[in-house]
Amino acid sequence: MTLRILAYGANGSQMAAGTQAPVDAGHQVRAFTRSTNGAERWQAAGVNAVTGDMSDLDALRRASEGQDALFLHVPLITDPNDDRNIYGLNALQAAKEAGIERVVWNTGGPIIGDRDRRCCAACPAGRRLFLSWAGADYLHGEPAWALDCQGNHAG
If you ran DSSP here, which 8-state letter would residue 85 be given? Predict the structure, then answer.
């Protein structure tokens, strides 16, 4: 079965491989990047590449249209005053609205847990809470150090 996969962070050191692997496996990949040069490189390789800003929910909605799966490598910042917190929320919101049913998220760092931060942002419980909000099947790998977290401390 050929999947249509939207890959955020396609120019990064990890997601470049995470974008190329499904291309090599015969899937249709749309690479989302903020860099015009990066988009041109992917287009030259035969990949549908779009540029945009992850704070622009409408751009993410357009990128998500017609996709089956989402590959996301976006580390989120736990500081509630940091505008980059919205990147992952926007990606999941756009995916949810587009009916994307599969999400693979490599956070590469912490993500936000619950709103009042009772749950550590890096703990498995916080990640599951955040991802389950999207209503999609998801795969999330946990580093060994995070497995000790029980989600009952401040982040």
Answer: G
- Domain of 124 in residue numbering reads as 4-141
Which tens digit of pLDDT belongs to each residue from 55-95? 999 999 999 999 999 998 876 555 667 777 788 888 988 99
H or E segment and range at residue 104? strand 102-105
Tally of domains within the chain: 1
128: domain CATH number? 3.40.50.720
Question: Which residue type sits at 56?
Answer: D
Confidence band (pLDDT; 50, 70, 90) for 122? very low
Task: Tell me the mean pLDDT in the region 5-18.
Answer: 87
Six-digit token pair at 66? 């017609």
Task: Map tokens 């998801």 to a residue.
Answer: 138
Distance between CA atoms of 35 and 27, rounded to whole angstroms? 23
Domain membership flag for residue 129: yes
Query: Is residue 33 classed as helix, strand or coil in its secondary structure?
Result: strand
The pTM is what?
0.73
Query: Within a domain: residue 148?
Result: no
